[in-house]
Amino acid sequence: MLAEETPVAISFNGSTHAVLMATPADLEDLAVGFSVTEGIVRDVDAIEAIDVVAFDLGLDVQVRVREDVAQRLAERRRSMAGPVGCGLCGLESLEAAARQLAPVTSRLRFSEACVHGAARSLETFQTLNRMTSSVHAAGFFRPGEGVSLAREDVGRHNAVDKLLGALFRRGLSGADGGIVVTSRVSVELIQKAAVSGAGLFAAISAPTALAVRTAVETGITLVAVVRETSFECFTHPDRIQPKLIAHVA
Question: What is the pLDDT of residues 83-111, one digit of tens each?
Fold first, then answer.
């Protein structure tokens, strides 16, 4: 069995904003997560409706947003219009890559056992990956608990957006727990986690240098290379409760 990889357009009020290569499942969650983490909307209340329309070439997730949001998007598109080679599109992309994010203020703390337990329990949610061995997963967990919600996708960014969209649609925030992923950690994942308010981001693989610098700046505790009995804490270790050692003297 092979995983599907499908062109998925995300449109706002009739205008296509982005086309992603994604697993064609949980697309409403993907649209909500993408809308919030990419700064299209500030909260889910600005989203009025979502429809998934199938075409021969792929899927179009049509998002209806409030009129004020639609006007802001239209103004952004007009500001990008200009002669070929003007560089505006490239400039906007560079600004998005280096965007300033509000610091994460979550005061939750996590034990070492909680981090290991989250990584282990995420495996139980990877139904598609067990059949295909080709998709990523992102899970949400609270201190003292295993993963309670997860999403899968061929793209690690999509998996995180699907997870966060599912959280937001339930009225939850990343600040209510931590995020664990099955992939390496790129800067975009840290940016998305920061928007969600999550104080802890854990991964089974290593981070990039820019991801680490961004985690430092946004106040996120970045834990990576999670194994059965060990992990590496790259930033803000104060959210990790040290293992208690009994005094025997």
Answer: 444 444 554 666 666 778 999 999 999 99
Amino acid at 28: E
Give the CA distances from residue 144 to residues 2, 16, 111, 205, in Å, rounded to whole numbers and listed in that order.
35, 42, 7, 22
Output the domain CATH number for residue 173.
Answer: 3.40.140.10
- Determine the number of helices (DSSP H) and then strands (DSSP E) in the chain: 8, 12
| Average pLDDT of the residues in 187-197 | 97
- pTM, whole model, 2 decimals? 0.91
161: phi then psi, degrees, rounded to nearest 5: -65, -40
Q: How many structural domains does the chain have? A: 1
Helices 187-196, 156-169: axis angle to 10 degrees equals: 0
Amino acid letter for position 208? T
Residues with catalytic annotation? 86
Amino acid at 213: R
- Residue 87 included in any domain: no
The angle that helices 27-37 and 187-196 make with each other, rounded to 10 degrees, is 90
Domain with 210 in it: 110-241
Whether 145 is in a domain gets the answer yes
